[in-house]
Amino acid sequence: AEKSVSAGEAKRTVTNQVIRKGFLRVHTGVKLFQAKDYFFVLSTDNLSWFTDSDEKDKKYMLPLENLKIRDVEGGFMAKRPQFAIFNIDSK
């Protein structure tokens, strides 16, 4: 009456599990104050951002495959931690 579990079934993982939700600021240009705030959802597979917290109007979805994160120095008066997400395959 015992069932055997194959190695593939034992390694099954939950995909696209939500890790964190909140607001993020996306810099839209090279000028200092050209940025816009969006509501984001970080999951195990991607980072999506929306126009508001209703999560109805998706503006962008960024797959997390081949991405890395690095700390970015904020300005003299920066109050929030800042970081950059970049693709390791970009040249």
TrEMBL record:
InterPro entries: PH-like_dom_sf (IPR011993), PH_domain (IPR001849). Gene3D superfamilies: Pleckstrin-homology domain (PH domain)/Phosphotyrosine-binding domain (PTB). Residues 17-91 form the PH domain. This is PH domain-containing protein.
